[in-house]
Design goal:
heterodimer; A: mainly alpha; B: mainly alpha; 77% helix; flat
Amino acid sequence: MAIAPALTGQPVGHRERGLLRTLTSRANIAWVIGSLILLSAGAVGVIIQVVPSLRHLYLNQDLEATLKPPLSPHHLLGTDNLGRDLGWQLIAGLGTSLAIGIGVALLSVVLGLIVGIFGGFFGRAADAVANVVVDVTWAFPAILLAVVLAGWIGPSLTTVILALALTNWAGFARIVRGEVLSLRERDFVNAARVLGVPKVLISVRHLASNLVPVTIVLTVYFIATSIIGEAGLTFLGLGIQPPMPSMGETLSTGREYISESWWPVILPGVLLVIIVLFLNGLGDHLRGQLDPRGRVQRR
Amino acid sequence: MRFALTRLGYAIIVIFLVSVVTFAALHASPGSVISSVLNVTTTPHSVVVAYERSHGLLDPLPVQYWHFISGVLTGNLGTSLVSNLPVAQIVRNSIWYTALLAGSAFLLTFGLGIPLGVAAAVTEGSWFDRVIRTVASFVLAIPNFVLAIAAVLILAVHLHVLPAGGAGSFSDLIMPAVVLAAEPWSLTVRVMRTSFLEHMSADFTRTLRARGVPEWRVVWLHVLRNAVGPVISLGILQIRNLLAYTLLIEVIFTWPGLGTQLVNSVLQRDYNVTLVLTLLLATVIVLAAALGDILLSLVDPRVRVNGGNP
């Protein structure tokens, strides 16, 4: 059945350009290269953890070369308290942190979309239920949720992912609900309802698809906050446990030797700040391109 | 008034659900309460059962929850499984430290944030404005525990000007309070500056000027009063973040507040303490959000229409 594009809510193709051309345009190219560098460093970090024959890179201890400063022979960024190479530690840790960040972001975005659309589009009772669930979740900041989860299942990778995803999720559901409240009054949604399209199908085809720009922007911010969150929780002992490398793990090990050497704690700290700055900048840049009305607020 | 009562009633329902969820999660854990007290594998089974019976751990969960919540409402918070101290005493011992730290950070945030934001707005485009804005965005990019570590490294380890931790004297408070205030401070400066600039060019400001009201009255009376609104809503939102970050900062600076207590109790599997402290903090957050909505509804009647859900 032929419906005018304006009625289906599909983006009208007045700005359609090739994806490749958009990515390599002058405004975007620096961000694309930066993202590729970050993602490949993260991928290397995951690969050296997964492939057994590569684990020696960051796990090999050298008790005769502990706490060597950066630029030492064989160790460009120095070594930690067990003589492990700090550079490889950071790359492996970056892999873990980035994987957590992406996992948490996807999880919170999916949950937020489902609950937000459910609350905004499926009637008053659904809205009341969704609001209570969101408000109960909101009472727990990530640290508090991690405390409860660590009490429940013990501190672990799962604790970190769940604690962060469950806290982000509630905030995102609120944004989605607000957007849905205005989207559901639009002509293309009313048209679909008059035509008898089931609500679930409308949610996916017309509501979720129109929330894609907002979602992409928030995903990037969520990756940044999750990387900070992982480091914070692990720092408290509620997150990743020692043999597994992560940014927070490197930081908290480094802090124990803070009076002897600065690099095991400053290097992961600086790396963390650079990554967060980059991701926040990327989010702002994407928001400028995808969300000109500024509906999404950082934090 | 009606809005305030509905909002508070709703907050109480949310707090009740929060307590159910927390209680269920902590008591349904695989390494249950008992294993934090006794070594289950070596203790005779009869002793384990006797302990469970005497502490009511064999009752169905709803019954256990009822015992717990009626105890809380009558002022009996139970005893710590690790130290055997009453939980109420543990809370009393640490709550003032947290209040002092969070309160100082709150004062620093707004005491320094609002004037500096206004000053930056008044001198828009000057070197002062640029310095303030640069510092604010720089501080915003650094996670506060990284800032804390850097501060310890520079000020305590290398320069020896401030202590690295503890809570014995005033100088112990300076570093944690400043680190804790850094992020909300930079947000306050930004919001205050933007809001002030917006109101400086608003219609009512132009009318006041046209009527010959002196410039200092326009700026310090009318613009400031109107521009401070967004900062108040930001402040209410920040209470939640401030509490969450207090927990983290306390641990880093070994500040003996609720956060240090809470993290220790989790790591020692001291369920009774964990439960009470978690509920206490969650309750403060829910109540702060409710009070914030009520405050805003007094200032801005539009809030009342959609029940505080923007």
